[in-house]
Amino acid sequence: MKLKDNYLLLLILVCIAIFFVNLDAIYVNIMEARNFAEAREMINLNHWIFTTLNDEPRYEKPPLPTWLTAISMLLFGMKSLFALRLPAAIMGTLTVIFTYKLGLKFTAHRKFAFISGLIATTSFYILYSGRDGQWDIHTHAWMIMAIYGLYKVFTEESDRYKNAIISGILIGFSFLSKGPVSMYALLLPFLIAYGVVYRYRGFSRYWKPLILMLIIAFIVSASWSLYVYFFDTHAVSEITEKETGRWLDYNVRPFYYYWSFVIQSGIWTIPAFVGLLYPYLKNRVFNKPGYKFTLWWTLASVILLSIIPEKKSRYLLPVLIPMALNTGFYIEYLFRRFDMLPGKEKWVVYFNFILIAIIGLIFPIAGIIYFQDELLNIWPWFLVTSVCLFSIGVLILYYLKINRFKPVFYLTVWFIISIIFFGLPMARKIESNPDYTSIRKVDSYIEKDPMPLYEFKGFTPEIIWEYGKPIKVLWNGEEFEMPASRRFLLLATEGQEKEMREVFSGSQIEKIDEIDMNPVGNTHKERLFRDLYLITKKTEND
Question: What are the transmembrane regions (predicted)?
Answer without folding.
Answer: 7-30, 82-100, 112-131, 182-198, 210-230, 256-281, 293-309, 315-335, 347-372, 378-400, 407-427
